[in-house]
Amino acid sequence: MIVKTVLMLLTFILPLIIVNTGMIESTWLLFALYITSGFGMAGIGMGIMHDAIHNSYSKNQKVNQYLGYTLNLIGANAAIWKIQHNVLHHTFTNIEEADDDINPPFFLRFTPHTKRYGIHRFQHIYSWFFYGLSTVSWVTAKDFVRMAKFKKMGFFNEGIAFSNELLKVIAWKIASFTFVLFLPMIMAPQAWWVVLLAFVSMHFVTGLMITTIFQLAHIVPTTDYPLPNEKGIVEGDWASHQLLTTSNFSPNSKLFSWFIGGLNYQIEHHLLPNICHVHYRKISHIVAQTAKEYGLPYHNKHNFISAVGEHFKMLRQLGNTDQLNMG
Predict the structure, then answer these.
(1) pTM value?
(2) Domain enclosing residue 136, as ranges
(3) C-alpha–C-alpha distance, residues 319 and 122, integer Å
(4) pLDDT tens, 27-42?
(5) Which residues touch 293 (CB under 8 Å, ≥6 apart)?
(6) Is 327 part of any domain?
(7) Alpha-carbon separation of residue 63 from 1, 49, 51, 152, 280 (angstroms)
(8) DSSP state of 116
(9) Quick check: is 209 in a domain?
């Protein structure tokens, strides 16, 4: 974890430091540096801050807290993400409205329980473009939208406490955007709009990688989308719910798993989010055997390409069918 942390932080920061020297005259090299930084950003998101905010990076909570701030460094916010991901997504996985991950803009449909529009017929084609833009939306507007929503839900205190938290979010974003975008616009010899396009290309790489990885775990034909009963209760126990709504993929690729922070073992992560991802591979054999003993599913695609194919298939089904025969 320490080696990975150093490598990913350097991959994100060093290219931007080089850009900020103002010595990069080649536009192609400028884009290459930003895109390289995008890979580092994705590595931070999947392999550092994810464990840290789950308090699974270290037994020392201060270490987890400070490394969780690496999410703030790349323009998002740890406090907001902790609510959206740790609390809502992990508690209410694939439950409409409760799980914010399956409540996208109207032109995307990630659950059979939401209204289907004509445009959804083509979402298996255009969704990938919006996946690429997802982190641009995240670092600019979505954090503020979620913060307002979570305030209404009672996650943030009213008055001065909320205002202070909002100021922290704004301050972190100013610091991040200054380093990643505003200084390069001043220092780089290229026109400001060229730097802006390079910035967007960095985020496109990050957004496409991160969003695709997370989508492969939940938006596939084998996962369930349970609904609460008339009393507002989802039937079944929590652990079974995680097995029913989550899928693994590419279990035999050690290098790929290393880069994406073990997120190909999403079942293990959802069942044991307080365990560092470096242990998921060994744990997976125990989880799979236990699921088999209790007659529960253990969804698993053997490689990344087949998992992408299943997600593509699911997007097309959701775009062309009101209700699906799940399972």
Answers:
(1) 0.92
(2) 2-320
(3) 7
(4) 999 999 999 999 999 9
(5) none
(6) no
(7) 12, 11, 11, 31, 21
(8) P
(9) yes
